[in-house]
Amino acid sequence: MPKRILQGKVVSDKNEQTVTVLVERRFKHPLLHKTVRSSKKYRAHDALNQFKVGDTVRIVECAPISKTKRWTVLVDAVEAQA
Predict the structure, then answer these.
(1) How does DSSP assign 2-34, residue by residue?
(2) A GO term (biological process) for this protein (predicted)?
(3) 4, 25, 61, 71: which is deepest, by most CB within 10 A?
(4) Tell me, which fold does domain 5-81 have in CATH?
């Protein structure tokens, strides 16, 4: 089964080797037929502490690293933007 890849914005980098990423998704409400925005925060592993607040990053699923970390930051996302 392929691993999920999500894109979002870093909202916190206060923890060592961890960033909090806000992922926003848009979908059409089934009854109201209106576009709804829904967001969720994920904690991702950033081994080099290279991502700061405001950066747009891509995260990928991984094996559990800690109690709340099940995602890692894709490093190639930074190289693609440069």
Answers:
(1) PPPEEEEEEEE--STTEEEEEEEEEEE-TTT--
(2) translation
(3) 71
(4) OB fold (Dihydrolipoamide Acetyltransferase, E2P) (2.40.50)
